[in-house]
Amino acid sequence: MRKLETIHEFYESRHKWIPDEIRNSLGHFNAFSLKYPNIGEEAEPLEYGRREWYNIVLVYGGGIFQCSGKEYQVKNHAIAFTNPFTPFGWLERNKITKGYFCIFNEQFLKRDKRIIEFPPFKTNVTPFYELTRQEADAVESLFNKMFAEIQSDYIYKYDAAKMYVEAMLHITMKSASYEAKNKSTHTASMRITIQFLEMLERQFPIESPHQTITLLSASDFANELNVHVNHLNKSVKEVTEKTTTTIIKERIALEAQTLIQLTDWNFSEIAYSLGFKEATHFNNFFKKTTNLTPSQFRNI
């Protein structure tokens, strides 16, 4: 299994360019059609591994999709959802006749995290669903609307894109395939990792400079979950391939970016809300994680 593929690597290796918003660590959304040589008779398998982004893919034809150690056979039309914590790939793509996919990162969602709270994006839920022709065509229509929006000058085009993503989720969750498959069990490591991630996320968003997060370390979360910190660390590493501390720092850094971009709070207020006792500690943390000072990031 390959190492985590970053969104930078996705664009560099497949499209030979990097959008400006990614270079500047901002939110990103895009949609694509699957074309030769990625589908069709000469298509090679897609290497199994984790990607840094959220992904929705719709395919027609046949194929074998791999996700979280399982294989899923495409019979006629299927949709799959992946998140940054689940490895996936395609063991067989040469029977896919057409398809579409969209990608987005967590920064794109900013304060509206509703989309990734839907079950198909959860680590413990089956990510792959067969659709009827009518359902698949409805999702295809939404992809075509996405393409039109992205090419337009409409100022709220990415809000419209979020709406289309939600519509895809609802089509999927109303399907017979979803009802039949959404009963799978998951490992103890997955359960504790999901509990940790949900507890981490409940600390956000920060709505006031007087609000401060209190769970800052692996030990803090282990105490709240009533498990030994070593057990938490092992479980999280097994599922996400990241340390507990890394995930905590990444989430704090993401909230810091949001607060710097969307509020007029001074950096001392942001530092306090994110659990830093000194603004200098926050400045050093932010520079280390983004390669920019808070001032530089605010002026992007």
Number of domains: 2
Uncertain parts: none
Proportion of strand residues:
15-25%
- Classified by CATH, the class of the largest domain is Mainly Beta
List the strand order in the largest sheet: 1-3-8-5-6
Secondary structure: number of strands:
10
What is the architecture of the largest domain at the second tier of CATH? Sandwich
Number of helices: 14
Task: Give the overall form.
Answer: globular
Q: For the report, how would you describe the main beta sheet? A: 5 strands, mixed
Secondary-structure element order, N to C: EHHEEEEEEEEHHEHHHHHHHHHH
Helical content, roughly?
40-55%
Task: Tell me the CATH topology of the largest domain.
Answer: Jelly Rolls
Structural class call reads alpha+beta
Rg result: 20 Å
How far apart the termini lie comes to: 36 Å
Keywords:
5-stranded antiparallel β-sheet, single chain, Jelly Rolls, 2 domains, 10 strands, alpha+beta, about 45% helix, Arc Repressor Mutant, subunit A, about 300 residues, 5-stranded mixed β-sheet, about 20% strand
Describe the structure.
The chain has 300 residues and is α+β, with helices and mostly antiparallel strands. It folds into two domains: 2-181, Jelly Rolls (Sandwich), CATH 2.60.120; 188-298, Orthogonal Bundle (Arc Repressor Mutant, subunit A), CATH 1.10.10.60. It contains 14 helices and ten strands. The protein has helices spanning 7-14, 20-23, 106-109, 114-117, 133-151, 157-173, 176-181, 188-201, 218-225, 229-240, 244-262, 267-273, 279-290, 294-298, and strands spanning 2-5, 29-34, 46-51, 54-61, 63-67, 70-74, 77-82, 88-92, 96-104, 128-130. It has a five-stranded mixed sheet. A hairpin with a 2-residue loop joins strand 5 (63-67) and strand 6. The radius of gyration is 20 Å and the shape is globular. The protein starts with a strand and ends with a helix.
